[in-house]
Design brief:
One of its GO terms (cellular component) is cytosol. The protein is an alpha+beta fold. Helix content is 36%, strand content 33%. The protein has a 7-stranded antiparallel sheet. Strands 3-6 form a two-stranded antiparallel ribbon. A hairpin with a 5-residue loop joins strand 8 and strand 9.
Length: 159
């Protein structure tokens, strides 16, 4: 990911993060994918009414899908409103899908969405990561590092 892409994400009016993913997994490789949405789904995402809790990706017949992603029904939607937790297709190159499929077959590896954002053209994008699960002691170490950083920041502010 280059600097332009990182700045684009920072400027995005909508940034829906999967905070638990960075605690539960080590990120090996990241990709940006488009997502196929209906009209009321994109409106809900622009309103910030989405969640990536307990969300995962899988590959079926050469296509990448995201499961369990919660996009709340649009408040002003009528009979054409969408289901909150349906499977949604992700748009990646065949080469990327093939690589992710091979890598995710390794035991302990999975594919997890980490961020949903709106790009400069107004399209919803999803950052997905190839991840390896952390052990219990790794999670404790992560918490300890986070606590140490907090204490150092407090000490600098008080100094």
């Amino acid at each position: 990911m280059n600097k332009e892409e990182q700045e684009l994400r920072k400027k995005s009016p909508v940034q829906i993060r999967n905070k638990k993913a960075s605690f539960e997994y080590y990120f090996i490789d990241t990709y940006t994918a488009g997502i196929v949405l209906t009209g009321t789904e994109i409106k809900s995402i622009r309103a910030g009414k989405a969640s990536l809790v307990d969300t995962f990706c899988f590959i079926n017949k050469g296509e990448m899908w995201v499961e369990n992603m919660n996009i709340s029904p649009y408040f002003y939607g009528s009979y054409s409103n969408h289901e909150a937790r349906r499977k949604r297709k992700l748009l990646l190159n065949k080469r990327e899908i093939k690589r992710l499929e091979e890598e995710s077959k390794t035991p302990g590896y999975t594919i997890v969405p980490t961020l949903v954002f709106i790009d400069d053209k107004g399209h919803a994008k999803v950052d997905i990561a190839l991840c390896r699960g952390k052990k219990e002691y790794d999670k404790r170490q992560t918490l300890k590092e986070k606590e140490d950083r907090r204490e150092m920041d407090r000490a600098i502010k008080n100094y």
